[in-house]
Q: What sequence folds into this?
């Protein structure tokens, strides 16, 4: 606990350090907007004195129940602009006073590191699960990554926890590592509830499969196994049946993607249904095991892609693109829309996008920065019409490293094709030692064909190129000098 802090409703708040004078006794409160009288101040003082005489445990209980955020401490020093922006977002999203929002932000500095859009989505999701009053008692829940609180809520619900509160979502790890027997003794799970059977009730597997999964658990699992271990056994048994593969293959998949073990069974079932019924991804060992990360896709996001995005890259169905690049299934729908608009604003053609569908998996900010970086380099800027332009954007870090390596050997930036800068490491090693770059003449020919507007420009270029060091910048300069406008 911070020095001079006062714990209120599970959060650290600031208490007013100044004593109100008699002239300011009737001034409006900064928190509630109401006026107070000297008599009320004396009553408050007497109640505070009485509370201080109570045992520590009772005082903590009183603090926990007090949720009016009416006692605040002045922040040390001025509040910067970033903090003011976050305070405004919290005040508008939660419908609370600026003083309450200030206490939340100043007591949980991690909120400042969260993007505004993510914070607002988190608050919207939390408001759909809990009353705002309960959320404000545990402001640390705002710092969770998007979707984590909802997934914890569903997992606790599936395990049979009777009443789920923000406090229990925050204590998720502690609850899931306890056996069902201990939680029944504390009253969190009903005495007649069997955790394994309750988990299976959220799945669509037949009775025979349920019996097989239950038979794989020890008879004393309510005492010997934690909730997390029981859930893990049920989840892996369900996946083995749903995908038609062995437990060993499921174990290998989870080892590669550990977050699959933490997935809500409701989310997992709904995600698989959407993948097989709407995105036409075959629910088989070959497709799912090869792209196990698709099991981490949020079903709500998949539905948003179907309803809001529909088409990308010049009219291609988003369901077809998901088959070409399954990674898109994990990209937020709003990001896909922003990337599409960004590429159009920079003049990127649908043909170029279709050559690098993976570009949609990058954030719009990253794409914007890399396109601007390309425009500052003359040798790269002339390649804006190259069909593989987005490969240079997608593999920017790899390309930058390889350019530094090649420049040490005296190779100019314009003398290297995009194919070399973005190819696999084994292929690059071969080109690096052999010195051959067959993609460079092709890129130059395609560029001149675009400038001349003639298909025969490719043959013309192949005839007149002066060797392997001809670059697109040199070709453009030569064309301007020799071809009259």
A:
């Amino acid at each position: 606990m911070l020095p001079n802090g006062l714990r209120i409703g599970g959060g650290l708040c600031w208490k007013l350090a100044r004593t109100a004078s008699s002239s300011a006794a009737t001034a409006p409160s900064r928190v509630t907007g109401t006026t107070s009288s000297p008599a009320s101040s004396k009553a408050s003082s007497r109640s505070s004195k009485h509370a201080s005489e109570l045992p520590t445990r009772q005082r903590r209980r009183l603090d926990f129940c007090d949720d009016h955020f009416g006692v605040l401490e002045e922040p040390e020093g001025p509040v910067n602009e970033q903090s003011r922006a976050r305070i405004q977002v919290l005040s508008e999203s939660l419908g609370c006073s600026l003083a309450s929002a200030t206490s939340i932000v100043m007591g949980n500095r991690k909120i400042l590191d969260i993007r505004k859009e993510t914070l607002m989505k988190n608050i919207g999701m939390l408001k759909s699960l809990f009353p705002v009053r309960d959320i404000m008692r545990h402001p640390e829940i705002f710092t969770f990554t998007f979707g984590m609180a909802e997934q914890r809520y569903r997992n606790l619900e599936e395990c049979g926890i009777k009443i789920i509160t923000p406090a229990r979502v925050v204590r998720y790890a502690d609850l899931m590592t306890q056996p069902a027997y201990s939680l029944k003794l504390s009253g969190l799970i009903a005495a007649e509830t069997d955790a394994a059977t309750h988990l299976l009730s959220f799945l669509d597997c037949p009775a025979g499969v349920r019996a097989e999964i239950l038979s794989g658990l020890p008879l004393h699992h309510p005492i010997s196994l934690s909730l997390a271990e029981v859930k893990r056994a049920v989840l892996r048994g369900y996946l083995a049946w749903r995908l038609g593969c062995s437990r060993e293959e499921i174990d290998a998949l989870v080892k590669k993607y550990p977050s699959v073990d933490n997935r809500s069974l409701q989310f997992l079932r709904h995600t698989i249904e959407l993948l097989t019924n709407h995105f036409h991804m075959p629910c088989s060992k070959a497709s799912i095991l090869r792209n196990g990360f698709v099991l981490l896709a949020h079903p709500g996001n998949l539905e948003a892609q179907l309803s809001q995005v529909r088409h990308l890259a010049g009219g291609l169905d988003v369901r077809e693109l998901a088959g070409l690049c399954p990674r898109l299934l994990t990209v937020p729908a709003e990001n896909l829309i922003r990337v599409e608009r960004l590429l159009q604003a920079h003049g990127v053609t649908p043909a170029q996008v279709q050559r690098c569908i993976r570009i949609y998996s990058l954030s719009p900010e990253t794409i914007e920065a890399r396109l601007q970086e390309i425009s500052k380099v003359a040798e790269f800027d002339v390649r804006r019409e190259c069909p593989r332009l987005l490969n240079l954007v997608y593999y920017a870090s790899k390309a930058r490293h390889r350019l530094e390596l090649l420049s040490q050997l005296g190779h100019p930036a314009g003398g290297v094709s995009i194919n070399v800068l973005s190819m696999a490491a084994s292929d690059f090693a071969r080109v690096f030692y052999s010195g051959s770059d067959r993609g460079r003449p092709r890129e130059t020919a395609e560029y001149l064909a675009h400038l001349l507007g003639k298909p025969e420009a490719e043959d013309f270029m192949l005839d007149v190129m002066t060797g392997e060091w001809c670059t697109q910048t040199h070709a453009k300069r030569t064309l301007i000098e020799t071809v009259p406008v």
Notes: The two ends are 75 Å apart (CA to CA). The longest helix spans residues 227-243. The CA atoms of residues 363 and 393 lie 12 Å apart. The chain has 30 helices and four strands.
